[in-house]
Amino acid sequence: MIFFxxxxxxxxxxxxxxxxxxxxxxxxxxTLSILVVVGAILDGFGLYEPLIDFAGAxxxxxxxxxxxxxxxxxxxxxxxxxxxxxxxGMFEVTSSGISAAIIFGxxxxxxxxxxx
Length: 116
Prior knowledge:
This protein is mainly α. The chain is built from six helices and no strands. The chain has helices spanning about 1-20, 30-45, 50-55, 55-60, 65-80, 85-110.
């Protein structure tokens, strides 16, 4: 049943993004930013973690999870280190994913040379 709910919740997040493109005529950058902020706000109210527990990858894979990670890391480090922890916590939690994206993107660019 977890696969079903992951599909449904992930699909709903994607449908919301598509509606933002089609109906509101937002650019990809605006849509991306809004979804990240929505994920951050949901985590700030303590609603995103229960959604991840319920839907698994359906909630942890979409871009809204990035906003969740930013706030989650900032709050955890703020408890330990105060105001400076807010800034360092965001980088600490998300740095491995961003670093991996850069490294794998570079490897892909080296292996698969673009034509043009």
